[in-house]
Amino acid sequence: MPRILRPRGARELGTRDRGLLLAAAAGLGTLALLARERLIARRLQRAVGERLRLGRNGIVVGAEPETLLASETHAVLVLHGFGDTPQSVRELAHRIHAAGYTVELPLLPAHGRTLSEFGLGRAHDWIEFVRDQVAHLRRQYAHVSIVGLSMGAALASIVAAEHDDLDALVLLSPYLCMPERIRRLAPLLRVSGPLAPFRRSTVRVPSIMDPVARAAGLGFGVVSGHLLAELNEVTEVAQEAIPELTVPTLYIAARNDSRVPVEAAVRNWHRVGAPVRAFRWLERSGHISTVDVEKETVFREVLDWLARCRGA
Fold first, then answer.
1. How distant, in Å, are the alpha carbons of 37, 38, 40, 241 from that of 32?
2. What span, in angstroms and rounded, lies between the C-alpha atoms of 73 and 141?
3. At 251, which helix (H) or strand (E)?
4. Backbone phi and psi for residue 67, each to the nearest 5 degrees, phi listed first
5. Binning pLDDT at 50, 70 and 90, where does residue 30 land?
6. What is the spatial distance between Cα 169 and Cα 94, in angstroms, rounded to a whole number?
7. Interval 301-306 mean pLDDT
8. Mean pLDDT of the residues in the chain
9. Interacting residues of 248 by C-beta distance below 8 A, sequence separation 6+
10. Structural domains of the chain in order of their starting residue, each with its CATH number
């Protein structure tokens, strides 16, 4: 039987072809994944748009910022959390106002508008916004305090650590650190772009135990890789800030908080450097304790702390 001779270079060509086929398959797989993720993101955007109606000002109805004037000397800045709106702390703000304080209740940058705008949120903008808010109040009022919920508490810690003349600081379910797996992935998440579009933010335990309050919430309920990286940056800055705190600090944590485990709350509490400080546990509330089943306890504790620390 005659021997069949292969053309010179045929072996190399076959290997190269296999490499090209593998690369093409990987590329097609990536494109398919991108298409799937984009489809999920578009569905989420439609769902959020249907649930959260925008007003003429471009802000979700019910998520508007608010200024409550009362005292000419004492003001309190009240900050909501990540992916949420002033709605989650509005009742607390009104209770503080009823006690005689002027209250500033702002809407954090990129929050409470469209999901696309939220997706562009940056840690630097959130921190600078709170710095500006505190500077504005300090120019107008002799006595200024800050109350923050979740990421709002982390932002409050960062800015409060830069001042030694604030009256009081209140940290409600403070989100001061992220899970280790997220921290390790943060650099990748920051550049993930279209590979990590919006996904539902899921937890084992609801952030609000009260079903009526949960249904009334105006939080987006979604995250992206970019936003997780930005949130991680906030917590990293907050970790550096809390040992430097000198402002009298009240720390309220919830045992059923699925966002901040008990061990994380205890660890972060022990890092707080304020010489005057107090810790309170909530036994039945979720992460957003200001609208949950023990909100009256939260209101009472906050008002008592503000009164205790109130400057003359």
1. 9, 10, 12, 43
2. 5
3. strand 249-254
4. -115, 125
5. very low
6. 18
7. 98
8. 88
9. 167, 168, 169, 274, 276, 277, 305, 308, 309
10. 66-309 (3.40.50.1820)
At a CB cut-off of 8 Å and minimum separation 6, what does 156 contact?
77, 79, 130, 146, 147, 148, 169, 170, 171
Spatial separation of the C-alpha atoms in residues 159 and 233, rounded to whole Å: 15
Contact between 178 and 231 under an 8 Å Cβ cutoff? The reply is yes
Q: Is 104 helix (H, G, I), strand (E, B) or coil?
A: strand
Q: How many CA atoms lie within 13 A of 188 on its CB side?
A: 7
147 pairs with which residues across the strands? 78, 170
* E strand or H helix that includes residue 252: strand 249-254
User: Alpha-carbon distance 82 to 205, whole Å?
Assistant: 17
Residue type, 99: A
| Rg from Cα positions in the chain | 24
pLDDT tens readout for residues 212-223: 999 999 999 888
Q: Judging by beta carbons within 10 Å of its beta carbon (0-12, 13-18, 19+), is residue 15 exposed, middle or buried?
A: exposed
- Token pair recorded at residue 268: 């972060």
- Measured distance CA(221)–CA(44) in Å, rounded: 10
If you search the block for the tokens 């304080």, which residue do you land on?
A: 101
**pTM for this prediction:** 0.85
Q: Smallest Cα–Cα separation from 51: which of 200, 226, 152, 259?
A: 200
| CA dist 17 → 11, 12, 14 (Å) | 10, 9, 5
User: What are the percentages of helix, strand and coil residues in the chain, rounded to 5?
Assistant: 50, 15, 35
What distance in Å separates the CA atoms of residue 188 and residue 225, rounded to the nearest whole number? Answer: 8
Cα angle 285, 290, 293; round to 5: 40
